[in-house]
Amino acid sequence: MSRHPVKTAILAGMLAIAAVSVSTLAEGGFRGFWAPLSTASRPAAASDGVPELHGQSDILASLGTQSHAQNDVERQPGTAIVEIPEANSVRQIRSGDRDDGRLYISKKSGTKTLDRSPVDLALSPDGRWLVTANQIANTISLVDTLSHELVDELPCGDYPVDIAFTPDGNKILLTTQWKGELQLFEVREGKLFLKGEISIGFDPAGIAVTSDGKRAYVGQVANAEVAEVDLEQLSVVRRISTGQWPKYLTLSPDDSRLAVGNGGDSDVSVIDTVSGETLYEEPLANGTNLGQMKTSADGEYAYFTWMVYRTNPITIGNIRRGWVLASRIGRVRLDGASYREAISLDVPGRAVADPHDLVISDDQEWLVASASGTHELLIYKLSEMPFVAEGGPGDLIDRKLQNNRELFDRLDVGGRPMGLRMANDNNTLYVANYLRNSVQLVDLKTRTVMREIDLGGPEEKTLARKGMEIFYDGQRSLDQWYSCHSCHQEGGTNARPMDTWNDGTEMSLKTVLPLHDVTQTFPWTWHGWQRNLTDAMEKSITSTMQGEPPSAQDKQALIAHLATLRSPPNPFRTADGGLTEAARRGKTVFFSTKAACADCHNGPRFTDGQIHDVGLGSEQDVYDGYNTPSLVGSYRKVRFLHSGRARDLQRVINDLHSPGRVNGQGELSKQEAADLIEYLKSL
């Protein structure tokens, strides 16, 4: 286990730059509230005016900020944390002020209003109410679609992801990814009320509700399964195994089949909901970043967005041909036949970055997709979409669509458009715009933004918010093919080995790893050749993304954004955050001389910051050895070692990188190896 080639920080599709985990900064107390604190002394500036950052203390000093613990928020008996949406000021709601069983926000004087950042939205069946899932503020907002006004807001669990109404409109379902719950709300007299909470387990994401509203299916990313939930009994009744990272899903109209997008395995599986058996799996060759899924009104297809990565060097020619990263809309049949069709989205010279959600009008005339990285909506006449089956689509958009605005149009809405819902008129589209803190109303006939509803947020953008805008901006790359997010999903990983061309080696694929805690794992890149984070950042943008060099202000903003990234909670810990019995035994193995893992994987991030040759290189490598990777977050990975050749920890520990092959004192027993793996999952 020691001298291990899994890496510290791959600067793959974007910038492998400073990212200090918020969970590390706030250690168990942080729940989304941030405030500027007293400034610290700043490190000496580099020649471009940007500090040379080498670790966590330098990052914090350069920002002059740190997290606000939850105990900084005042609590009174009978109150809960919530923010009053109609005012940017803070006010205290004390016990007895309201006696309606609702939850209200009380915040300490001087705390700035939070960005809402709506990631998804839901429309009531009668079209009367619109509800948004606000990922940064950890709230849900209620919009009156008649008055187009924000009328209410309530707190929810940590990191909401998906939201949906039941068909009768009586329940609102919300997944809170980092709290591990499916929460139930309702609307009464223009107010939101919490009805119940169901513990789902770690990493719940996409929601699919049955036609009778009695059950829901919830994708659980980290556990590779779908939870079936009884919405009347408020309990999980079954767990269905899937591929890796089952984030989004959709049901057939008769509820007999469930389509699941498995982002870690690059495929879509179709499951029989009665037996729980997988009927077939449709591979998405080198597919990554699978987005939301929707079923057509006739129940024939499940539609979805994704990107595809080709294992080609990142050159100008390859990027412009769609031979590096490209965007797709696909569909899988739900009526029994097993095949996939797809279309390409990218236009020559003006590609599409980071498609996320899509919606289909009830009359099946329109399909609209959100391209979050290029700040736009893609509007298609569904019947004229040239889907291709055998051999897949071309690398660029079909010429039939390219110059015909009646068949295909692009509407720039700014910000980061994410969740989409179609109104009952089949013409008005509601858009959750993450970076604009708003809901936009789009008229599909006139191709215009008719109205924008402000959900609340700071009057001025913070430095971190400006960095977030850069991070998600595909227009920063050559011909806007991809963003930082394309390879580092929300600061994490896309589970693909990639040739970033960042380290000077051609066709030497390296796995993309999360940016959480990157600032604490000096040096950077797989081979450790980058010794300065600001240099690494610029190299990633200009080489990997083939974009223009970032300004000094851009670098500072990106660092500020990455410093806000949080590592998700670890599902392999006990309820109180401790180690299981097996993990405790594995810890003993890890630090033993027999395994010798700690010889190289030591310190708080389990890395010594040194370069080691452990015999796992290839002819394409021009460097001797690899950077010792941090082992924190190993449980979330689906590819291990620098090349991604191991798809699980069992292959790493028992074969390719076993202690006996490195510098351990012998082979581990089956029990020792199993316990060691449990400990690694807990890190």
Write up this protein.
There is one protein chain. With 683 residues, this protein is of the alpha+beta class. It has a domain at 1-34 and 473-683: Cytochrome Bc1 Complex, Chain D, domain 2 (Orthogonal Bundle), CATH 1.10.760.10. 13% of the residues lie in helices and 28% in strands. It has 11 helices and 35 strands. Strands 19, 20, 21, 22 and 23 form a 5-stranded antiparallel beta sheet that branches. The chain has a 4-stranded antiparallel beta sheet with strand order 3-4-5-6, with no helix packed on it. A 4-stranded antiparallel beta sheet has the order 7-8-9-10, with no helix packed on it. Strand 4 (129-134) and strand 5 form a beta hairpin. Helix 10 (649-656) packs across helix 11 (670-682). It is globular and about 70 Å long. Residues 1-111 have low confidence and may be disordered.
Map the helices and strands.
Elements: H1 22-26, E1 34-36, H2 56-63, E2 65-67, E3 118-123, E4 129-134, E5 139-144, E6 149-155, E7 160-165, E8 172-176, E9 181-188, E10 191-199, E11 204-209, E12 215-220, E13 225-230, E14 235-241, E15 246-251, E16 257-262, E17 267-272, E18 278-283, E19 287-288, E20 293-295, E21 301-309, H3 316-320, E22 325-333, E23 340-344, E24 355-360, E25 366-371, E26 376-381, H4 399-402, E27 408-412, E28 417-422, E29 428-433, E30 438-443, E31 448-454, H5 463-471, H6 484-487, E32 497-498, E33 510-511, H7 533-544, H8 552-562, H9 581-590, E34 611-612, E35 626-627, H10 649-656, H11 670-682
Antiparallel strand pairs: 1-2, 3-4, 4-5, 5-6, 7-8, 8-9, 9-10, 11-12, 12-13, 13-14, 15-16, 16-17, 17-18, 19-21, 20-21, 21-22, 22-23, 24-25, 25-26, 26-27, 28-29, 29-30, 30-31, 32-33, 34-35
